[in-house]
Design a protein that fits this description.
The complex is a heterodimer of chains A (about 350) and B (about 280). With about 350 residues, chain A is of the alpha+beta class. Helix content of chain A is about 25%, strand content about 35%. In chain A, the strands form 4 sheets. Chain A has a 6-stranded mixed beta sheet, sandwiched between helices. Chain A has a 5-stranded antiparallel beta sheet with strand order 13-12-11-14-20. Chain A has a 5-stranded antiparallel beta sheet with strand order 15-19-16-17-18, with no helix packed on it. In chain A, β4 and β5 form a beta hairpin. Chain B is globular. At the A-B interface, β6 and α3 of A face α7, α8 and α11 of B. The complex binds adenosine-5'-triphosphate and magnesium ion.
């Protein structure tokens, strides 16, 4: 496991009465693509700005590459930032923008020009150096901002929602490029986003934040498959919840009585949040439920249900089904493979599921 | 249809009004060059013929040259001082929150609405009480006082339109606070600074009341002109002087606007300056 490049120790930040960060702890590993994911106002930008040195934590410590950052101003930190607004200097050309930070360092003019050209080539803007920076498109401005930060060879690159201003197509293209760039340069990236899909597809690890706290810091797969709380579970993708009661806790496995689904034994690893108490809930993803269309299709466990609603999306059909004795309908997503029937509201359905796909939550 | 005719006739009414207004405003100014070239000591129609001797007279008048130099000195010094103060105040008020900011800013802007005669009387009282001598520097003091609010108003607009993250980006790229101010902030608010310098200079140049109270042995141009008005024979050359000043102000304002537009084009942002010219 790689050494941490950033260690956060109970980082707290208050703005008057507002607690923007309520004691955030965690480690970010050298060379990883790390994302801060959370709803608006949860403190993502504040945490990023604390790392960059634009805000001083009210208490707690930020250790960056082994050094305590308290009292170290932004211009002396080994971090560089790509701002949400890109913050391209409008009075400077593209090359002058990219070379802005190098000018402060004692580097010869020739080397500076070469590094600027390299950085521009890295973001596919070779030959754009002489352009006036205000005559650039949104995507190009973002690339200039990236090049300007990367040319400084920072230990950590901070990106505050860099893609949110771009249209969907360009955003998807830049997601791929950012990921490729990160692998190529090997610099630790910390990306702030409120788009869970973006975080899942791009990151090595993600910190999910709510109300100034990290709710879970994990890999995309673990976040999706084994969320630690209902909040995380419903923020990342869609999750069906059912009431449940713990019958027996056998160390390696838990014996549960789940509403509608009945008795089920799940491995302890399916209880990542370690909720205590007998009354819990279980989560199951829409794609983990299958409607068995023919008698020949079977599953580990089966349950009878009634289709309440069906939404046809071309590649997929999304069903709302009602389990006996459960008021809230559950969502099921089915791929529309060749010959597979599409059910209608009012149809009876045999729903298959497996004990592995269940997560025990608070 | 009837609505259209209505707007049409209303439009005509407004146009007549606007024309009359402009005529009233600028006709006296237009008289300046006419009488400056009129070959008669009496300022009245009908005109008597063309001459440039009033300009020649200006050329000869030593005290006029002196007062012109004084005015330029006062104008340049007070516009630079007022703009420097304005930069500090505008920067502080747009970037930082501090206790008592609102009342303090209100206090700084007060001279904008105070009658100049009150400012003049109050200042001469204080200066005499302090035992200071009246000189061009006391005039400068008074002019800085009345120019600073204008400078702050112009520069606050310029600083407020400056995206804060630009300065943060500069810090982030390793530049110091001072370096950031010189390399990012200053170039981007430069149009505002030029506007402020021009406006303050213009205000100082034709300011009479405060200069009249606070001037010592050396007079400024408006005070000199006022002195000349007692001699009817000098009146045409005062008109000639007025004509030259008119040309100079037009030139200054045109220059100011040229620089503002040029920098707006360079940065691709219209009206970054918050300039008045
Ligand atoms: N300078 C400030 N002064 C006062 N409150 C602030 C300041 N900056 C942030 N806050 C507050 O701190 C909380 C966290 O803000 P932050 O900008 O970090 O949220 P965010 O997660 O980045 O949200 P978004 O997705 O909307 O950008 C919010 O409640 C916000 O109002
Ligand atoms: Mg934010």
């Amino acid at each position: 496991m790689a050494a941490p490049i950033i260690t956060l120790e109970k980082v707290e930040k208050r703005f008057g009465d507002v607690v923007a960060l309520g004691g955030v702890s965690g480690e970010i590993r050298a060379g990883e693509f790390f994302s801060l994911l959370g709803p608006s106002g949860c403190g993502k930008t504040t945490l990023l700005r604390c790392i960059a040195g634009f805000e001083d934590p009210t208490s707690g410590a930020i250790i960056l590459d082994g050094k305590h950052m308290e009292g170290v101003p932004a211009n002396h930190r080994p971090t560089n930032m790509v701002f949400q607004s890109y913050a391209i200097f409008p009075h400077l050309s593209v090359a002058e923008n990219v070379g802005y930070g190098l000018k402060k360092q004692r580097i010869s003019r020739a080397e500076r020009a070469q590094r600027v050209e390299e950085a521009l080539a890295m973001v596919d803007l070779a030959g754009y150096g002489h352009r006036a920076s205000h005559a650039l498109s949104g995507g190009q401005r973002q690339r200039v901002a990236l090049a300007r930060a990367l040319v400084m060879r920072p230990k950590v690159l901070l990106l505050d929602e860099p893609l949110s201003a771009l249209d969907k197509k360009l955003r998807e293209q830049m997601q791929v490029e950012l990921r490729r760039l990160q692998r190529a340069v090997g610099i630790t990236f910390i990306l702030v986003t409120h788009d869970q899909e973006e975080a899942l597809t791009m990151s090595d690890r993600i910190a999910v934040m709510f109300g100034g706290q990290i709710a879970q810091l994990d890999t995309p797969q673990n976040l999706y498959r084994r969320p630690m709380s209902r909040q995380v579970a419903s923020f990342i993708g869609f999750m069906n919840f059912l009431d449940a009661e713990i019958r027996a806790d056998g160390g390696h496995s838990i014996d549960l009585d789940v509403a509608a689904l009945g008795r089920v034994e799940v491995p302890s690893s399916q209880r990542p949040g370690k909720p205590n108490g007998r009354k819990v809930s279980v989560g199951i993803r829409p794609e983990m439920l299958t409607i068995l269309m023919t008698d020949s299709e079977t599953a580990e466990r089966e349950i009878e249900a009634e289709v309440v609603d069906a939404a046809y999306y071309g590649d997929m059909t999304y069903y709302d089904v009602r389990f006996p004795g459960v008021a809230e309908p559950a969502q099921i997503s089915m791929r529309n493979t060749a010959g597979r029937r599409i059910l209608e509201a009012g149809d009876r359905a045999r729903v298959g599921w497996s004990s592995e796909s269940i997560v025990v939550l608070d | 249809m009837s609505g259209e005719t209505g707007t049409h006739s209303k439009g005509t009414g407004l146009r007549v009004y606007a024309f009359a207004y402009l005529l009233f405003l600028y006709a006296p100014v237009a008289l300046l060059p006419i009488f400056a070239f009129n070959d008669s000591q009496i300022i009245a129609f009908p005109l008597s013929g063309f001459t440039d001797r009033w300009f020649g007279e200006l050329w000869e008048a030593e005290p006029l040259h002196e007062s012109l130099m004084n005015s330029l000195f006062v104008g340049i010094t007070s516009s630079v001082l007022a703009t420097l103060l304005g930069i500090c105040a505008a920067r502080a008020s747009t970037r930082y929150e501090f206790p008592g900011k609102k009342p303090m800013m209100g206090f700084v802007m007060l001279p904008l609405v105070l009658p100049e005669i009150i400012v003049g009387v109050a200042m001469i009282n204080i200066i005499v009480q302090l035992g200071m001598d009246l000189s061009l520097w006391t005039v400068i003091l008074g002019h800085v006082l009345i120019c600073t609010p204008f400078a702050i108003a112009i520069l606050s607009a310029a600083f407020a339109s400056l995206d804060r993250s630009l300065e943060e980006a500069s810090l982030d790229l390793g530049e110091t606070r001072m370096g950031t101010f010189l390399r990012v902030t200053l170039p981007l608010v430069m149009p505002g600074i030029v506007s402020s310098l021009l406006i303050c200079f213009t205000i100082s140049l034709d300011e009479f009341i405060i200069a009249f109270f606070l001037t010592g042995a050396d007079t400024t141009l408006p005070v000199y002109i006022w002195g000349q008005l007692r001699f009817p024979g000098r009146l045409p050359s005062v008109f000639a002087l007025g004509t030259l000043m008119l040309l100079a102000s037009l030139l200054l304002l045109t220059l100011g606007e040229y620089f503002r537009r040029r920098s707006a084009r360079k940065t691709g942002i219209e009206h970054t300056a918050g300039g008045l010219v």
